[in-house]
Structures are given as C-alpha cells and as structure tokens.
Automatic annotation (TrEMBL):
This is Pca regulon regulatory protein. It comes from Azospirillum baldaniorum. Residues 1-33 are annotated as: Disordered. One of its GO terms (biological process) is negative regulation of DNA-templated transcription. GO terms for molecular function: DNA binding; DNA-binding transcription factor activity. Keywords: DNA-binding, Plasmid, Transcription, Transcription regulation.
Amino acid sequence: MAPRRPSSRLSDTESATADADASVKEGGPARAGDPLMVMSVEKAFRVLNAFDAARPTMSLTQIASIVGLDKSAAQRFTHTLEKLGYLHKDPETKRFELTVKTLDLGHHYLRGNGLLERSMPYLMHLSKTTEETINLTMLDDTEIVFVSRFMSRHVLNTDVVIGMRMPAYCTAPGVAMLSRMPMDEVVDLVDRMDLHPYTPNTTWKREDLLAKIERSADLGYATAFEEYYHGDLSIAAAVVGPVGTPIGAINIAVSRSRFTPQEAEERFAPLVVAAASSISTIGRPTPPRKNAQR
C-alpha cells in the first residue's frame, strides 16, 4: 500500500515533483564558484535528472523551464544528449524521453562495486534460507538507495526496485547506518531531513528519532515496523568499513500478515547481524560515538 501523508501536505506526486524541480534547478552540490567545475557537464546531468516517473516525457520548453535554462541552451543540451544516445526525441510529438542507454552508468556501478560483490553470497544465502525479501542498501546523504534486492515469493512492495530511494529516518537500513555514525554527524543529518509521518507508526519527531538511533546502536540492529509502508516489517544491520564507518546495510523485510513485530525481530535480527558482520571489514575498532547537544 502506498504511504499516506496528512491531507494538509502535498500529494506524494506533487511533493516529489516540487522536490525534483528544486533539486534540478539548484544543481545539487555543483556550484559555479568551483574553478574545476565544468558547468556544461553539470547542466547536462541536470537535464537527464529532470526526467522521472512524474515526467517520463517532456517538451523542449518544459525541459528549459524545469532545468532553469533558456530555450536555446536547452536545445543544444538535448540535441547533444540525443546524439550520444541518452535521449530519444519523438519525431511526431517532439517530446524527449530517456533511453535504455542511461542504464549503463548504473550497470557499470553495480558491476564494479566491491561491497556488492562481497555481499552477494550472504544475500543469496539469506534469500534461500529465509525465503523472505532481502535488500542491500547504501546511505546517500539523508536517503537510502537500494543496490541489490532478492524478492520473496511472499511479495512485498513490488514498486521497490534497484536504484529506488527512501528517507533514511523511517527505514530500518537507514536507522541502522545512522546508528553506526558519530552522534554529531547524526544530528547534522537529522536536522537536514524533512521529518514527517508516512504512516501512524512513523518515528518522525526529532527527539524520538534520535533516541531510536541510540537504541539501535546499543542493539546492533534497527527495526522499522510499518513506518513507511503499511504491512511492512523490516529488520536491518549496518555493514561497516575498516574504521567502523557504515558503508551499507542488509535488511530482511516480511509481511505483517505473517509475523508479529516481536516474532520478526526475534527470528531475523540475529541473521541480519551475522550477515552484516561477516561482510564488514574485520579487525578494526569502531570509533567512539561523540556526544552532541540535541
């Protein structure tokens, strides 16, 4: 079931579109003041990033407006991207859309990612032994990104695919990774998050969220029970690098119709902790968590 928001807020599609517009026009982390920044490359990626589920096809005028370019510049960028094979222009409607070639970067990333390669045997083992949905995610600023996914025959959330992003604060993998970070860094991230409830069970108030992250640090794993999707129970543990920095998280997702939260936690928490520990770089101490004023 899709997440629900309070009626006073924008709809999911409207909110996502507004966020995407702002992100595209701002250009993300790229800034013109950087002497090494090639701004034309940055603008080309802004054009590509303007396409999403809400805007699968766009006219030249729409692209120019959303990306923040004049029409002449938008025409040059779309023409170049079309010639390179990343955009297709419909000869009749003159509307642009992404091509399958845009998947190449993601494919190269997945093939060359050391964490994914190291994790694969453990993910496959968990999938076979539990017959539940197994995910490997990574933290990207305030969001998690799915980089591997083994679906259960008890299918949950079929709209979740590799490359999908979710807010870190209301997902078990996100909280698990946050729980392995120094608290001053956690507070900085939390203060930049758009905290709001997706379901009645979402832990979204700042103090409650920080307390949950602290508890997860003590437990060694995190849970999210119907916090983003109704009926979804998730248990996750962080994978850490040589100095204890979280570099990913493994989670098991099961249906609320088949397990109670307590049953899911008791049965699957030891499995995700063991798998995450096996994948983590061993032999280096985890850095002490720094206290920060909340």
